[in-house]
## 1
Amino acid sequence: MRDYYELLGVDRDATLAEIKRAYRKQAKQYHPDLNPGDDEAEKKFKELTAAYEVLSDEDKRNIYDRYGEEGLKGTMGSGSYTGYGDIFEDLFDIFGGFGSQRRRNPNAPVQGSDIQVGLRISFKEAMQGVEKEVKVQREETCHTCHGKKTENPDSVHTCPTCHGSGSVQTVQNSFMGRVVQNMTCPECRGSGKIIDEPCSTCHGSGKEKVKKTIKVNIPKGVDTGSVISLSGQGNEGINNGPPGNLLIFIEVEQDKDFSRRGNDLYIEIPISYSQAVLGDIIKIPTLNGLEEERIPRGTDSGHVITLKGKGAPVLQREGRFGNLYATLKIHVPKNVSNEEEKLLEELLVIQGKDIEKSSKGLLDRIKDFFD
Ligand SMILES: [Zn+2]
Ligand SMILES: [Zn+2]
């Protein structure tokens, strides 16, 4: 046998990557499947594989470098020999996997693929539900040939390469044992038929893209990320297989006032300082209009009022709703009227004394701290 390096066409100090690349390139060229009946090619392929098996393994390569092929004979039987596992995987890479091209009966019904579209709706629409129209491009049976792929039935004949099965099989006795490969027939691309005069509309695919406008009922309670599936509204199936589905991915626009987390809604309500001190009845906007709520005397800024069942509708749970949380924020005006100004200044004088009194304890403590 020739020198392994020479065989693969690499230098003696070639890296593993270089060895791999060289092997793949040559293996493709001499693979028995691509050279049927060529004994020379098969012999060469086996030699290449044997060389690669050694040079791609660091230990075996070391032995080969020092003692040549003779040295390896010992290791083959010693138990360190790992078999063809790695090479099998490499070949798998190169040829796309044995049998992976296997096709079922080319006339078997196949379900059509799904169509996916995005749909943006307003917050209000999400809260109330809405009917929308979506535009899709759907694959349907060609209207010219009715899916027969040709207008002239006499121009269709059985593929001579695969005899109508759509796949070709090669059985090969190689160093790896008996390997059966099923590949899509290259002549008819798996259809089992050859068409001399393909349909002028669909060019022999049997399908055409049709623009459709589809009405869809968006149920109340949807949120960004909700997906609505309309079964049977996707692309048409092959060989009378069922159609795919239409998947609508919902995006809900942000509202100016309400924010949302799941089914709960949040809103900020400004109140005045005097309302916070004296208490009052305030109006809180909800999805169903204004709700009156009493706020007690001495309400703090940041106080949260919970309105049970006034949140977002729960998707597909009729009559169920999340909560609405209204956070009260004391509003500090930037400008005030003359009258307000006068009253506030009076208030300032009175409150100044109050604050002095109530902060006396604090000031004393801090004084102690520095003493
Ligand atoms: Zn064929
Ligand atoms: Zn057609």
Note: The chain has four domains: 4-95, 115-252, 265-330, 335-371.
## 2
Amino acid sequence: MSHVGLRYGNGPEVLRDINLTLHQGSLQFLTGPSGAGKTTLLKLIYLALHPSRGFVQLFGQDTSLASRDDLAYLRRKIGVVFQGFGLLDHLSVFENVALPLRVTGREHQDYQADVKDLLSWVGLGKVLDVSPATLSGGEKQRVAIARAVVAKPELLIADEPTGNVDPEMGKRLMRLFLELNRLGSTVLIASHDTNLIQAVIADIYSLTDGALSFLPARKKKKPK
Ligand SMILES: Nc1ncnc2c1ncn2[C@@H]1O[C@H](COP(=O)(O)OP(=O)(O)OP(=O)(O)O)[C@@H](O)[C@H]1O
Ligand SMILES: [Mg+2]
């Protein structure tokens, strides 16, 4: 992002002059108080919003010059855990999680075991066939995370991914993000969860009143 500003309608700028580069294969957090603009910034990255000024370049492509088809192609490389989950209630838990694999044309028998394994890992192995509408907030959040990571996206954007789960499950979900990152995905996690942020050595971007500041990763302690 280069000198990006964003206003909703005729309102004030919610984001001001954002300059941000996410390096391929990196993992970082985005933090900041409620209303600071975290979700807005993430939406600009996953192309749900266009900047009011400045440029967003994604996977080396200037998004302002991209056609609708190009944008759809870029969008498919991104896994998103939405703050409001964004699950489809008319599909089962299994079908929600399998969706990113189905759209790439993969066959059911080809991905069935992977989807089941992933849902078991997040503790949902027994609710494969129910509608997400019948699940608790924390369970929905885990379905949303499974769906975002299942296709091993080049970029994973997670908006408050552990806001509704207990600390133990929070750690388990973080391991999923770390594993995805180890396999090469770039990961950006917006979170207020200080336990989550402090458990990992990673760069932290902090948003306050629409402006971004950068806190480099804590230095690793030298071995004695
Ligand atoms: N669709 C919208 N129309 C108008 N204003 C909006 C819209 N979405 C967000 N805003 C405003 O933009 C600002 C930033 O909102 P945003 O959702 O990005 O914050 P956030 O940092 O994600 O907050 P939270 O931690 O509560 O999720 C807020 O003042 C909010 O009211
Ligand atoms: Mg938000």
Note: The chain has two domains: 2-77+153-215, 88-143.
